[in-house]
């Protein structure tokens, strides 16, 4: 190793003149060393300049650091480092370096004044600010800058610093009346309770409140009595321990402005607010998310409501209740009901709610509320079913007419649980021309049969998720999926040891080679993985780009290693790998199974823990661009990864 790059090299020592006078050889060699040191400093300075001009700033700073080690009381090393930092625009670091130089270098140094000037210039540049809020046109401030500053809700009791920079800043930020606040349950009401919310109440557009047992004495909801919210349009209240009258009074005070309301209680001793009461209090509501113990009949029409989400905490909603609900809400675009209702209402959906685009019943909230095409008539997204242990199969004979009525508009179907139906009602001539995604979690034969019928009639289907608990119809399922010419994503769970459809389908796509449309595969493994004949087929998928493996059901690391060893040897197009260990630790050494995978660009890992050794092994991946880790990892390891990998995201479980 070259000794001049040793971090701990000592400065060039000074030799007293009395010592040099006693021995001429000491004097001569000292003079020669001083000359060499000066030449060395000059060359380091020149090279650091060249490095910086070529944007090799790390190398330039290394040479500047060596200059400071050799002569720590000389201004040259500090000046050079400060100049390099300024070239990078790192004015604060430059000012800090100049300040160190002023502390170490004697004032007699011929460049001491340069250190002072450099420090003053860097400090000035570091403190230079451009007031975009004041100088840019208001419409740009409102549309482009404020969303960046207020991307999260403000706390009701904590001052927002941006609102206190200047009067002009405050005026411009308040001009859009678009502030968002939240207030959580407090165990003790501090002085100035909700002070900021009260101060800016006239400019609040979104408010989220959680008022609970420990907060009742403070009575957070009383803020609606003491303050006005003339611009409030979106309100969320989670309440525990309040009387219904307290909540309805709060709603009444903002009834003429609120269009989006969420109202929840999960405490049995807290009275719920009935749907009819809420709709009567807030006539401008467009979207409502409500938790209630039951639904009372509606007696009036509510044409403004388009989105309704309800968590009804009763056993089941009757057909009459559902018909009453639909018949009084003619403009519904979305209906999301947690409890699974009696299914007879499905045959009347089009009659009462002709604008319905998204329907979810059973507690699977998988569709974004605004993700639909406003220009396409008919139901576009459908999610039905529940997997509660004591759920009886629901009547599929009411589902089939709904599918028939909307076969030209459905884009995404999710069916869960079990059904009963008459196969004779399945129309062999029907085609789902817009259906692109199908998810089926089948707990009985009839739902499997219905799923196969849908697949055979959906030529544009390109995303399929299958969980077949009953394990029958293997040949029919295989043949149906084989006929999909644009199957880009396949997800499979609960694969029995004797199930054949999945392995046969993989082999079919292996035979297609590069012509296979299959780009993404998601599969859940268990301890019987070594007995599955289709394991090797995954590695033969020439077009596969994304692979997601869940090993939650695997008890031993050895079984997992066998998966990795088989799959990662081939797959020439694979660039994304996601490994989900669930609540289990990642088995130590699992990264070594894939560290020679040259095409891998993105790795996503879920686990209860990951060893430091495996984290460090990630540095050996030549083309890895993205790492997402959902597990606790030491900060220094994440910092190390971020120095070598462009994007690293670590999330706690």
From TrEMBL:
<dbReference type="InterPro" id="IPR011990">
    <property type="entry name" value="TPR-like_helical_dom_sf"/>
</dbReference>
<dbReference type="InterPro" id="IPR032675">
    <property type="entry name" value="LRR_dom_sf"/>
</dbReference>
<protein>
    <recommendedName>
        <fullName>F-box domain-containing protein</fullName>
    </recommendedName>
</protein>
<dbReference type="InterPro" id="IPR019734">
    <property type="entry name" value="TPR_rpt"/>
</dbReference>
<keyword id="KW-0802">TPR repeat</keyword>
<feature type="repeat" description="TPR">
    <location>
        <begin position="75"/>
        <end position="108"/>
    </location>
</feature>
